[in-house]
Every structure is written in structure tokens, then in C-alpha cells.
Amino acid sequence: MLVKVYGSAFFGVEATTITIEVNIVKGIGYHLVGLPDNAVKESNYRIAAALQNNQFKIPGKRITINMAPADLRKEGSAYDLPIAMGVLAASGQIKSESIGDYLIMGELSLDGSLQPIKGALPIAIKAREEGFKGFVLPVQNAKEAAIVDGLKVFGVENILEVIEFFDKEIPLKETIVDTREEFYKNIDFPEFDFSDVKGQESIKRCMEIAAAGGHNIIVMT
Q1: Is residue 121 within 8 Å of 145, Cβ to Cβ?
Q2: CATH number of 2-177
Q3: In a 10 Å sphere around its CB, with 0-12 CB exposed, 13-18 middle and 19+ buried, how is residue 97 labelled?
Q4: Domain with CATH 3.30.230.10 in the chain
Q5: How far apart are the first and last CA of the chain?
Q6: CA-to-CA separations, 191 to 29, 194, 216, in angstroms, rounded
Q7: In principle, which of 49, 63, 177, 197 could form an S-S bond with 110, CB 3.0–4.6 Å?
Q8: Which pTM was predicted?
Q9: E strand or H helix at 197
Q10: What 3-state DSSP class applies to 97?
């Protein structure tokens, strides 16, 4: 059975949607193609342990996973979750009717919990541009992605939440950020202030001037 799940790769501030095609047929073998780096290649060990610890498994069949476009290098461990969901869907362990409507990213721990990813904001922007219904990612990154209007963002802590969302239609809690409220809250109660910096008067003055004029600045130490 062939199933397509969607993830993303980002370079700087630009993201590219990655189609993760999982095909499972009779036979034996696990083949991951599409220019994955070592972190992606190692995902099968993390996925196997995470699924086993949540009463699921990687089927003992011939599994081929293609990450398209195949000529674009895939880096990092954030593809663990979409690959795992693709394997579960393609093997018939969960329902997969709506899985292609969502962009899914997340690094798996061996117990199935999720570790934060990089690039949540540019990935969310790209997901909105391409018309995805929602973005499923680790809860640690949910507020960053939720800044993007017009995209439902679901922060999750464990792969089991994602499985139940697609298989049993148990709703995920949507993360909603009021950017205007956050803006004014940070103005009134800033996390950092120049008064916290002792000395460095010339540098602080330069940064004030740059901020007032809307200019870029680089500080060399």
C-alpha cells in the first residue's frame, strides 16, 4: 500500500515541502531514499522503538520510503514523525484518509515523546501558502508556528496523540496566538532590557540608533 505524508525542509528563511512516499509490499527490507543525511537514515531505530513502546510496530515487510524531491538533500531528525505516521498508515495500522491534509514534523524519542524542531515559522508560512489544513508539530514549537494566520497549528507531546487524531478522530488542541496581545505584553513587560547590560555604552548607543532608523546591525566580539 502506498501512502503520502508531507513534511518540510528549510534553508535560511525559505521552506520547501517534502513529500514522504511510503510503500509497503510483501518481502523483507527497509529502504530510505531521496538524499537523506545520517540523522534521517538513523530515524528507523528511533521510530521502531517509539512505535513498540506505544503498542505499534514496523511491519516485517518490504518498506520503501522516498523523500521527494529526491535531488534535494534532507537533513535533521525532524522527519521521524512523518515517516512513522507514513509507515503506520501504509501498513494499515491506522486510518489515513486525512493524513495528506496536514504537514507533520517532529523528532521522536524512544518512548514516543517529541523533541523540538528547527524552522517552525518558515515551515508554517510555506504550509499556509500551499493550502494545508493544519500543521502538526512538537508542542515546544507550537507558539512560533501559530504566529502564521490562516493555518491551524496543533502542538503535540507524544506520537500517540497524533495516532489517535488520525485513527480515532480524537481532536488535538489548537494553538492560537494573538500577535497583537503578545506585542503589547512584551512592550510593557520585556524579557530583556538594556538596563540588564552593564557597561558597553557605545554598543548600546549604536543599537539604539540602528533600531530608531530601522537599520541592520552586526556586533563583532
Answers
A1: yes
A2: 3.30.230.10
A3: exposed
A4: 2-177
A5: 56
A6: 51, 11, 21
A7: 49
A8: 0.84
A9: none
A10: coil
